C-alpha cells in the first residue's frame, strides 16, 4: 500500500472510470462487427485473417483489438491479453485457461506461447521503453509483445516469403516487423483512432528508415505482398457481404440467444461434461469455460488446417505450427470476446437495452441515472467540495508521498496549503501513530453526512470515494452490524486492499444508515477512530493495537443526526448537514432524463414534482419511471396524484407553528392542479377536470385556500396536539390583526382540542385524534397572516403548573402535620377548598395586634391572646422560621409559607407582623411545642411507672405545676384517656402549687432585668437547683446554653421557661 | 383548638344550632341501633362534617374524638406505590380517596376491604359495625364509584359508609340509591348572624347585629367562613363597630379586579393581561369553577337584560366544557374572549343607538 503507482498509472487510477467509459463507447461502434465476428464460422474467419492485410478487409477481425489499443499503445496489447483487460478482476485465470492448451500443444513455437502467457507485461509496460526494445525482443523471441493482428499477419507473411521456414531469421523478422508497423501505421492513420498511440509509431517508422537498405533487397517480396493484399481485398468483399447478411440476423436475435449458441464453450452453470475453468466477472457472475482435452484441441486444429488447406489461402504455404498458433489465438480471442460481451451485458445491460427498447429488461432509473462522476453530482457544490477536501486530506496517509513526481507533489502541497487556509484547515494536526512515523490523519477522522432521505448522500460518498482514488466499501443496515462484524469490517477495510483487479485501490469505508446501528458498534467505531489511547489502554488485551487504529477514511451516513447512539461519533466527526438539492437543478436533471427516455415532460411539471417530493431524487425518478411505463407524457395531475412526498416528516413544532401562523407564499400555489389542464386545452387534449368551466380567478383562490388547508392537514396530521395547541395559545394573541370574534372562535377550537384530548386520554379512543388536525386548520385560517412573527415556545403552561404544584405542596405539608382534631373538621382538606375559605382568614387571625415587647410585660388579656395565637399556630402546624434573603437580611417567614398561597402579587400588602414580633411568636411556638411534648412525656412516665411515683413525686410535681401555672390555660391537649391520671398528682401537692404560683407572681411584680431586658430568674433557678438536685438523676434532662461567651452563659431548665 | 370555628363547634347532635328537625331524625336513626349508608351532601360550610362527627359521637361515644393520623400504603396493579393519609379512631376511619387522583379506585377497594373485613371482636356495648367516612365523593372517578357500589353491598354486615359530597350530581345513581341521602342546606343569613352573636357571647365580646348580618351576607351563607371572618375582624379591630371593614380574601378582590378589567376594555392585548391574572389565580389553587362564578357575577353587573342571559349562557357553556376537558385556562379564556366579543358588540350597538 505504501508505494504509490507512478504518475502514469495514477492517472489511470484516477480516470479509470472515464477511460473505461470511453473504451466502452468505442466498443460500441464495433460491437456489431465483433458480434458478427463471433458468428462467423472459425474457418471462414481464419481465412480472412490470413489473407486480408489491407485495412478495409481487416475491420471485422481487428475490431476486438482496436478496443485494446486505447489503453496506451496499439502494439502493446495481445489478443491473448485481451481477456485480462476486459474481464478485469479475475482475468488471470481465464488467460491461463486459454494459454494452457496452447502451451501444451504448441511447445515447438515458443514465440506464440510466450505471447499468450505474458499478457500483463505487455499491457502495463511503459510505452517508451517498449518501443525502443521492441526490436530486440522481436529478434529474440519472435515478437514477444507484438502479437497484434499485424504481427499475426506479418508472421504469416514471413511464412509465405521464406516458404515453409520453421523459424524466420532475425533480420527478416525485423524487416517484417517494420513492414508490419508500416502497415499498422497506415492502418492507424486510416482509422484515426487516437493521436496518442501514433507517437510511438512514428518513432518506429524512423527506425524503419534506417533499415531501408535491407528492405530494398526484398522488392520481390513486396510484390508478393501486394498480390496477397489484392487477394485479401477481393475476399473481404465477399466477406463483407456475408457480414451484412448475418448482421440482420444478429440484431434480431436476443442477447441471451446470441450468447448461448455461439459459445458452446462458455457456460453459465457448471458444464455437465468435460473439464472446465471457473471465471468470475467483476459483477460477481460466474462463468465456466469448458476446457478442451488436448486430443480434441489437436483434432480441432487439424481440422482447421485441412479446411484452410482446402481454401486458396493454403497456397501461401505457412507452416502448420504457425497456423495452429493462429487458430489458438483466434480461439482464445473469441472466447475472450464472448466473456467480455457477457460481462458488458451485465454491467450495462441497459446500454443496449436503451436502443432496442427492451423495456422489460430495464433496471430502475434510480440506478441507471446514478451520477457516475463528480460533475454529475446534483448535491450542493460546497458540500461536495467539503467532502472531497476532507477525503483528500487522507492522501498523505493513504497514498503516501514516497514516489511522487515533482509536479504531483507540488500540486499536492499546494492543495494542502490551500487547506490550511480554508475553514477546516486545522485538521492537519500531526498525529503520530505507532509503527507509522509521519503519517497524518485529519483531526476529524470520520465524516458524518446527515440529511433527509433521497438527497444523494450515499451516491455522493461513493462518487467522491472513487474520485479520490479509493475503492469504496459499503456497510449498510442490511449488513450485520454487531460490534464484532463492525470490527472485522473496519479492520479489513483498513488493512487490506483488493489484490485482484486492475487497480488495487485503497479502501474507503462508507457506513450507510449508521443511525440505525447499535450503540456498541458506534462506540467501537469511535474507539477505533480515536484509537491511540484505547490501543495503549488495552495493550495487554488480546487486541492488537495497530489493528484498532484506522488508516482509511470512513464516511458515515445517517438521516437523523441526533440519534443518541451517534453522540460520541458527533464529537469527533466532521459533521456535514446535507442541504436540500436545488429544485431547479434537480428539475433540470429530470428533464434530461425524461428526454433520454423519450418521456414528454414540462419543466414546470417536474418542478412541481420536485416540490412535492421535497427534492427527493429517488422518489422523483420512481414517479417518472412509473409514468413512463404506461405513457409517454407526464402531466401535472400525474404528479399531484402520485402518492409520493407524503413521508412521515419529522417536522419540528416550530415549523408547525410557523405554518399555522403564516400564509404560504404565492409560489407554492404553482402546484395548483388546475393550471396544467389549462395548458392541455391549448394542446387539444380534453381537460380532465370538469370544474374548469367556472370563473378561473375564483378557482385559483379557492384552490389556494384548499391548498392551505391541505398543507396544514398534512403537516399536523400526527402532531403532538397538546403541545401544538399550547404553542398556538401562547402565541396567537401576538397576532395584531386578530379580531375578537376570531379569537373566541379559535379558543373554542382550543377548548375542543382540550376536550378531545381529555376524552382520548380517558377512554383511550385514539380514533378521536383524527379530528384534531382540523382544529389546527381553523387556527390557521383564523390567525394566519403574511407577516412574520417570532414564535415563542410555550413555557408558561409548565411554569404555571410547577407553581401550582408548589402551592399545593405547601398546603399539603401544612395539612399533613396538622393535629388530627383540626384536620377532622376540615372538610375536605383539599388545597382549593383551603385557599378559598380558610387560609385567607387564618392568615389574618394569626397576625394579631400584639405589642412587640417582652411577653413578661403582657397584660393578662394580651397573654391570653398570645396563647390563643400560639395554640392556633400549633393546631395548624404553622410557625415562623428565620430565613436569609438575597440581600443578606434575615427575616422570619411562615413555615409552610401560606402567605405565598394567599397573597396575590399586585394587591396592597397586608398588615404584617414586625420582625421582633415574629421572632417572639416563633420562640413561643417552639417552647409550647417542647412543653407539650414534655407534658406528654411526664404524664406517660407517671402512667407507666406507678411504683416509682412516690419517689418521683417531689421532682415531677414541680414542672407540672410550672406548666400549669405559666401556660395558665387549661387546654393543654392531653388525650382524653389521660385526664383521670393527671388528676392524681395535682390533688396531692396542692401546697406546692400555691408556692409555685407565688413565685410566678413575685416574678411579675419584681421583674428584675438583666442587660438584655430579660427577667433575671436566678432566684428561681437557684431554688430549683438547690431543691431539685435529683433532677439530674432522672432519665432525661435538658441543658440549654444561650449566648456566645461565659458572660451571659447560664443554665436554664425547660420547665423554667 | 383556638380558632373560633373549632372551639365552638357543636360536638353532639343535641347541641346543633340549626336544622334541628334533621338532627332529631338522626338521633332517632342512631337510637334504633342500625342505620344505612349515608350520603351527606350540601354546600361547603353548611355543617356536613359537624353533623357526621356528631352522629359518630352519638354512635360510639366520645371515643371517636380520639383521632390519629395513619399513613396507609397501597400498590396499584401496575406496581405503583401509593400513600394516603387516613384519619382514624377506634371506631371509624375517614379517608379522602380523591387525594390519590386517578388511582382512587384502588384505595376505595383496598381500604374498605381491609377495614370492613374484620369483625368487631367485642360487640358488647359497641356497635357491630365500623364506619368509613369518605369525603369528596363527587370527585371520585367513575371507576372508583362503581367499585364502591359493589363494596357497599358486600360488606354491609361489618361496615357502614358515610359519604360526604358537595353535590350529588356527580355521584352515580347506583350509589345514590344505596344510601340514605342527607341534605345539609346552607344556613340562612339570619341563622348565621345568630350563631355569630352566640360565638361572640361565648368569647366575651359584643358584636353589633348589623355587623353580624353583614358578615353573614358576605360569607355566602358559608358558616365556616362567617365565623372565620368574624374572628379576623376581631383581630383586625376590636371593639367592633357596625360599619367596620370586613376582611375579604385576596383572591376575591383579585378576581373582581380581573372581571372589571375585562369589562373595561375589549382587545387582544387586554385579553393577554387577563390571561396572566387568570394564571395567577390558578396557581393559587383557586378552582376554575370559582373563577367562572366570580367573573360572571361581576360581569353580569355591567350588562343589560338580554346580554345578561347570553353571558350566563356562555359561562355555563364554557364551564361545562371545562369539566369535559382538562386545561382550565383554555376554557376560561374562551369564556372571557366570547364575553369580550359579545360585550363589545353590545356597546357598539348602544353607541349607534345613541347617535
Which helices and strands appear, and what pairs or packs with what?
The complex is a heterodimer of chains A (1057) and B (355).
Chain A: H1 7-39, H2 42-51, H3 55-69, H4 82-86, H5 91-105, H6 110-117, H7 119-124, H8 127-141, H9 149-162, H10 170-191, H11 198-210, H12 212-217, H13 219-252, H14 255-262, E1 266-267, E2 275-280, E3 286-291, H15 294-310, H16 320-347, H17 349-356, H18 365-368, H19 381-393, H20 395-398, H21 406-421, E4 446-450, H22 457-467, E5 471-475, H23 483-495, E6 507-511, H24 519-529, H25 532-537, E7 554-558, H26 567-572, E8 573-577, H27 583-596, H28 603-613, H29 617-630, H30 636-641, H31 653-661, H32 675-683, H33 696-715, H34 721-731, H35 740-763, H36 772-783, H37 796-816, H38 820-825, H39 831-845, H40 860-875, E9 880-884, E10 890-894, H41 898-902, H42 915-944, H43 949-967, H44 979-987, H45 990-1006, H46 1018-1027
Helix pairs in contact in A: 1-3, 1-13, 5-16, 8-10, 8-11, 9-10, 10-11, 15-16, 16-17, 19-22, 23-24, 27-28, 31-34, 33-36, 34-35, 34-36, 35-36, 40-42, 42-43, 43-45
Chain B: H1 4-7, H2 20-31, E1 38-41, H3 48-60, E2 68-75, E3 81-88, E4 92-95, H4 104-116, E5 130-134, H5 142-154, E6 159-165, H6 173-178, E7 180-183, H7 189-203, H8 209-218, H9 223-236, H10 250-264, H11 268-283, H12 288-300, H13 305-324, H14 328-354
Parallel strand pairs in B: 1-6, 1-7, 4-5, 5-6
Antiparallel strand pairs in B: 2-3, 3-4
How would you describe this structure to a colleague?
Chain A: It is found in: Nucleus. The complex is a heterodimer of chains A (about 1050) and B (about 350). Chain A is mainly alpha-helical and about 1050 residues long. Chain A is built from 46 helices and 10 strands. In chain A, strands 5-6-7-4-8 form a 5-stranded parallel sheet, with helices on both faces. In chain A, strands 1-3-2 form a 3-stranded antiparallel sheet. In chain A, strands 9-10 form a two-stranded antiparallel sheet. The longest helix of chain A is centred in the N-terminal third of the chain and has 34 residues, at about 220-250. Chain A is elongated. Chain A starts with 6 loop residues before the first helix and ends in a 30-residue tail after the last helix. Chain B has 3 domains: about 5-185, 3-Layer(aba) Sandwich (Rossmann fold), CATH 3.40.50; about 190-235; about 250-350, Zinc Finger, Delta Prime, domain 3. In chain B, about 55% of the residues lie in helices and about 10% in strands. Chain B has a 7-stranded mixed sheet, sandwiched between helices. The longest helix of chain B has 27 residues, at about 330-355. The chains are: A mainly alpha (about 1050), B alpha/beta (about 350). At the A-B interface, helix 35, helix 37, helix 38, helix 39 and helix 40 of A face helix 3, helix 9, helix 10, helix 11 and helix 13 of B.
Amino acid at each position: 500500500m505504501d508505494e504509490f503507482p507512478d504518475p502514469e498509472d495514477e492517472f489511470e487510477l484516477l480516470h479509470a472510470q472515464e477511460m473505461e467509459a470511453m473504451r466502452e463507447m468505442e466498443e460500441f461502434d464495433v460491437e456489431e462487427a465483433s458480434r458478427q465476428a463471433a458468428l462467423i464460422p472459425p474457418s471462414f474467419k481464419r481465412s480472412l485473417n490470413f489473407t486480408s492485410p489491407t485495412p478495409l478487409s481487416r475491420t471485422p477481425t481487428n475490431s476486438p483489438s482496436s478496443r485494446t489499443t486505447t489503453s496506451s499503445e496499439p502494439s502493446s496489447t495481445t489478443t491473448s491479453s485481451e481477456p485480462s483487460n476486459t474481464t478485469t478482476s479475475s482475468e488471470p485465470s481465464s488467460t491461463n485457461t486459454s494459454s494452457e492448451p496452447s502451451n501444451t500443444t504448441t511447445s515447438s513455437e515458443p514465440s506464440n506461447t510466450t505471447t499468450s502467457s505474458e499478457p500483463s507485461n505487455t499491457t502495463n509496460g511503459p510505452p517508451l521503453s517498449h518501443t525502443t526494445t521492441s526490436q530486440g525482443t522481436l529478434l529474440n523471441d519472435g515478437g514477444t509483445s507484438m502479437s497484434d493482428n499485424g504481427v499475426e499477419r506479418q508472421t504469416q507473411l514471413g511464412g509465405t516469403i521464406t516458404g515453409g521456414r520453421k523459424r524466420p531469421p532475425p533480420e527478416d523478422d525485423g524487416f517484417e516487423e517494420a513492414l508490419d508497423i508500416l502497415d499498422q501505421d497506415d492502418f492507424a492513420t486510416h482509422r484515426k483512432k487516437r493521436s496518442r498511440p501514433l507517437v510511438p509509431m512514428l518513432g518506429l517508422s524512423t527506425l524503419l528508415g534506417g533499415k531501408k537498405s535491407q528492405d530494398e533487397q526484398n522488392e520481390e517480396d513486396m510484390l508478393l505482398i501486394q498480390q496477397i493484399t489484392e487477394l485479401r481485398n477481393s475476399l473481404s468483399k465477399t466477406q463483407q457481404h456475408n457480414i451484412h447478411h448475418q448482421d440482420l440476423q444478429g440484431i434480431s436475435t436476443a442477447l441471451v440467444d446470441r450468447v448461448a449458441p455461439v459459445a458452446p464453450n462458455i457456460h453459465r452453470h457448471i458444464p455437465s461434461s468435460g473439464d472446465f475453468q471457473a471465471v468470475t466477472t467483476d459483477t460477481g457472475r460466474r462463468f465456466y469455460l469448458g476446457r478442451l482435452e488436448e486430443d480434441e484441441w489437436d483434432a480441432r486444429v487439424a481440422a482447421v488446417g485441412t479446411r484452410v488447406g482446402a481454401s486458396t489461402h493454403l497456397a501461401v504455404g505457412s507452416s502448420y505450427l504457425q497456423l495452429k498458433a493462429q487458430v489458438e489465438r483466434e480461439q482464445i480471442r473469441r472466447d475472450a470476446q464472448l466473456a467480455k460481451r457477457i460481462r458488458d451485458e451485465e454491467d450495462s445491460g441497459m446500454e443496449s437495452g436503451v436502443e432496442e427498447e427492451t423495456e422489460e429488461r430495464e433496471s430502475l432509473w434510480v440506478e441507471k441515472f446514478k451520477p457516475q462522476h463528480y460533475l454529475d453530482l446534483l448535491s450542493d457544490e460546497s458540500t461536495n467540495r467539503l467532502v472531497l477536501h476532507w477525503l483528500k486530506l487522507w492522501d498523505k496517509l493513504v497514498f503516501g508521498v514516497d514516489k511522487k513526481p515533482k509536479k504531483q507533489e507540488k500540486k499536492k502541497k499546494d492543495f494542502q496549503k490551500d487547506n490550511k487556509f480554508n475553514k477546516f484547515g486545522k485538521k492537519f494536526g500531526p498525529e503520530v501513530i505507532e509503527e507509522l512515523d509521519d503519517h497524518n490523519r485529519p483531526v476529524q477522522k470520520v465524516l458524518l453526512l446527515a440529511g433527509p432521505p433521497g438527497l444523494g448522500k450515499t451516491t455522493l460518498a461513493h462518487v467522491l470515494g472513487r474520485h479520490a482514488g479509493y475503492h469504496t466499501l459499503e456497510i449498510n443496515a442490511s449488513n450485520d452490524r454487531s460490534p464484532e462484524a463492525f470490527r472485522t469490517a473496519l479492520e479489513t477495510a483498513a488493512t487490506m486492499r483488493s489484490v485482484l483487479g486492475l487497480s488495487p485501490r485503497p479502501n474507503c469505508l462508507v457506513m450507510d444508515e449508521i443511525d440505525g446501528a447499535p450503540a456498541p458498534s458506534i462506540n467501537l467505531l469511535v474507539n477505533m477512530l480515536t484509537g491511540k489511547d484505547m490501543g495503549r489502554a488495552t495493550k495487554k488485551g488480546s487486541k492488537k493495537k495497530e489493528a484498532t487504529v484506522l488508516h482509511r477514511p470512513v464516511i458515515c451516513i445517517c438521516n437523523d443526526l441526533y440519534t443518541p447512539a451517534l453522540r460520541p461519533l458527533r464529537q469527533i466527526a466532521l459533521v456535514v448537514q446535507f442541504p436540500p438539492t436545488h429544485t431547479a437543478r434537480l428539475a433540470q436533471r429530470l428533464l434530461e432524463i425524461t428526454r433520454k427516455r423519450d418521456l414528454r415532460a414540462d419543466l414546470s411539471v417536474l418542478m412541481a414534482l420536485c416540490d412535492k417530493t421535497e427534492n427527493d431524487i429517488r422518489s422523483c425518478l420512481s414517479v417518472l419511471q412509473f409514468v413512463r411505463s404506461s405513457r409517454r407524457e407526464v402531466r401535472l395531475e400525474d404528479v399531484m396524484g402520485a402518492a409520493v412526498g407524503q413521508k412521515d416528516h419529522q417536522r419540528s413544532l416550530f415549523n408547525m407553528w410557523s405554518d399555522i401562523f403564516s400564509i404560504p407564499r404565492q409560489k407554492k400555489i404553482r402546484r395548483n392542479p388546475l393550471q396544467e389542464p389549462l395548458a392541455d386545452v391549448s394542446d387539444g387534449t380534453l381537460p380532465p377536470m370538469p370544474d374548469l368551466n367556472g370563473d378561473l380567478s375564483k378557482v385559483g383562490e379557492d384552490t389556494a385556500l384548499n391548498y392551505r388547508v391541505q398543507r396544514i392537514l398534512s403537516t399536523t396530521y400526527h402532531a403532538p396536539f397538546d403541545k401544538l395547541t399550547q404553542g398556538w395559545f401562547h402565541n396567537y394573541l401576538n397576532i395584531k390583526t386578530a379580531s375578537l370574534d376570531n379569537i373566541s372562535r379559535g379558543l373554542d377550537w382550543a377548548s375542543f382540542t382540550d376536550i378531545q384530548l381529555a376524552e382520548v386520554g380517558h377512554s383511550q379512543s385514539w380514533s378521536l385524534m383524527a379530528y384534531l388536525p382540523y382544529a389546527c386548520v381553523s387556527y390557521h385560517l383564523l390567525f394566519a397572516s403574511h407577516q412574520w412573527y417570532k414564535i415563542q415556545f410555550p413555557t408558561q403552561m409548565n411554569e404555571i403548573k410547577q407553581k401550582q404544584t408548589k402551592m399545593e405542596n405547601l398546603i399539603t405539608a401544612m395539612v399533613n402535620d396538622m393535629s388530627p382534631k383540626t384536620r377532622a373538621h376540615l372538610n375536605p382538606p383539599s388545597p382549593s377548598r383551603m385557599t378559598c375559605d380558610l387560609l385567607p382568614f387564618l392568615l389574618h387571625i394569626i397576625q394579631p395586634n400584639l405589642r412587640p415587647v417582652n411577653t413578661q410585660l403582657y397584660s393578662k388579656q394580651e397573654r391570653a391572646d398570645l396563647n390563643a395565637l400560639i395554640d392556633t399556630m400549633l393546631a395548624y402546624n404553622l410557625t415562623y422560621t428565620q430565613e436569609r434573603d438575597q440581600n443578606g437580611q434575615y427575616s422570619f417567614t411562615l413555615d409552610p409559607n401560606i402567605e405565598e398561597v394567599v397573597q396575590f402579587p399586585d394587591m396592597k400588602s397586608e398588615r404584617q407582623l414586625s420582625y421582633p414580633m415574629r421572632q417572639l411568636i416563633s420562640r413561643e411556638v417552639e417552647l409550647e411545642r417542647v412543653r407539650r411534648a414534655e407534658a406528654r412525656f411526664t404524664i406517660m412516665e407517671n402512667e407507666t411507672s406507678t411504683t416509682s411515683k412516690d419517689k418521683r413525686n417531689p421532682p415531677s410535681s414541680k414542672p407540672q405545676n410550672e406548666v400549669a401555672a405559666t401556660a395558665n390555660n387549661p387546654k393543654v391537649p392531653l388525650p382524653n384517656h389521660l385526664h383521670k391520671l393527671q388528676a392524681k398528682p395535682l390533688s396531692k401537692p396542692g401546697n406546692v402549687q400555691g408556692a409555685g404560683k407565688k413565685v410566678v407572681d413575685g416574678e411579675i411584680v419584681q421583674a428584675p432585668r438583666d442587660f438584655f431586658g430579660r427577667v433575671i430568674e436566678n432566684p428561681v433557678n437557684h431554688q430549683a437547683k438547690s431543691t431539685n438536685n435529683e433532677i439530674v438523676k432522672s432519665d432525661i434532662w435538658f441543658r440549654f446554653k444561650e449566648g456566645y461567651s461565659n458572660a451571659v452563659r447560664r443554665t436554664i431548665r425547660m420547665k423554667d421557661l | 383548638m383556638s380558632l373560633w370555628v373549632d372551639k365552638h363547634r357543636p360536638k353532639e347532635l343535641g347541641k346543633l344550632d340549626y336544622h334541628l328537625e334533621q338532627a332529631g331524625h338522626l338521633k332517632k336513626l342512631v337510637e334504633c341501633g342500625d342505620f344505612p349508608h349515608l350520603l351527606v351532601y350540601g354546600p361547603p360550610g353548611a355543617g356536613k362534617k359537624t353533623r357526621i362527627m356528631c352522629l359518630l359521637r352519638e354512635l360510639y361515644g366520645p371515643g371517636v374524638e380520639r383521632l390519629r393520623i395513619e399513613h396507609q400504603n397501597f400498590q396499584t396493579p401496575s406496581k405503583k406505590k401509593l400513600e394516603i393519609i387516613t384519619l382514624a379512631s377506634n371506631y371509624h376511619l375517614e379517608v379522602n380517596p380523591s387525594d390519590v387522583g386517578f388511582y382512587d379506585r384502588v384505595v376505595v377497594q383496598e381500604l374498605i376491604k381491609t377495614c370492613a373485613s374484620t369483625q368487631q371482636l367485642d360487640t358488647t356495648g359497641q356497635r357491630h359495625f365500623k364506619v368509613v367516612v369518605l369525603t369528596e365523593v363527587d370527585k371520585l372517578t367513575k371507576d372508583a364509584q362503581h367499585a364502591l357500589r359493589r363494596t357497599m353491598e358486600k360488606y354491609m354486615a361489618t361496615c357502614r359508609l358515610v359519604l360526604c359530597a358537595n353535590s350529588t350530581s356527580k355521584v352515580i345513581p347506583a350509589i345514590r340509591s344505596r344510601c340514605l341521602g342527607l341534605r345539609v342546606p346552607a344556613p340562612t343569613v339570619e341563622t348565621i348572624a345568630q350563631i355569630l352573636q352566640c360565638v361572640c357571647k361565648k368569647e366575651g365580646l359584643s358584636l353589633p347585629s348589623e355587623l353580624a348580618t353583614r358578615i353573614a351576607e358576605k360569607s355566602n351563607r358559608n358558616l365556616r367562613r362567617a365565623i372565620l371572618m368574624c374572628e379576623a375582624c376581631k383581630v383586625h379591630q376590636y371593639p367592633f363597630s357596625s360599619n367596620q371593614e370586613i376582611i375579604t380574601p385576596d383572591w376575591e378582590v383579585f378576581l373582581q379586579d380581573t372581571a372589571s378589567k375585562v369589562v373595561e376594555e375589549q382587545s387582544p392585548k387586554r385579553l393577554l393581561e387577563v390571561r396572566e391574572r387568570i394564571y395567577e389565580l390558578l396557581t393559587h389553587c383557586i378552582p376554575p369553577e370559582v373563577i367562572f362564578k366570580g367573573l360572571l357575577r361581576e360581569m353580569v353587573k355591567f350588562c343589560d337584560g338580554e346580554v345578561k342571559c347570553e353571558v350566563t349562557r356562555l359561562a355555563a357553556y364554557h364551564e361545562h366544557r371545562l369539566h369535559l376537558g382538562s386545561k382550565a385556562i383554555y376554557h376560561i379564556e374562551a369564556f372571557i374572549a366570547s364575553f369580550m366579543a359579545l360585550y363589545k358588540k353590545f356597546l357598539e350597538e348602544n353607541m349607534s343607538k345613541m347617535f
